[in-house]
Amino acid sequence: QVQLVESGGGLVQAGGSLRLSCAASGRIFSFYVMDWYRQAPGKQRELVARITRDGSTNYADSVKGRFTISRDGAKNSVYLQMNSLEPEDTAIYFCAAGFTRDDDYWGQGTQVTVSS
Hints:
Blueprint: E1 4-7, E2 10-13, E3 18-24, E4 33-39, E5 46-52, E6 57-59, E7 67-72, E8 77-82, E9 91-98, E10 105-106, E11 110-115
Parallel strand pairs: 2-11
Antiparallel strand pairs: 1-3, 3-8, 4-5, 4-9, 5-6, 7-8, 9-10, 9-11
């Protein structure tokens, strides 16, 4: 059973930075995709960033140039570096992984709150 555990969320002022981590119980290179999603109160969950097995990355337009997804195979971990944070980035952030383009496994989420 694959487990994903997020960490690194917290409260930060606008303009600040946070780095989220997602530790996987399995080898991350066995996944086709590893993703970061977020869900703000009253809004639908949205895909924020994706990294595929070959290292390709994709970002939501709202975070391009500010967020960076990366991975460390030795630590079986995926990261989301978030810079220039805005109050609109406030949400619960989830790590997800899949053996196809669809996400099969989800973490429990970590809260990110950006104050103005």
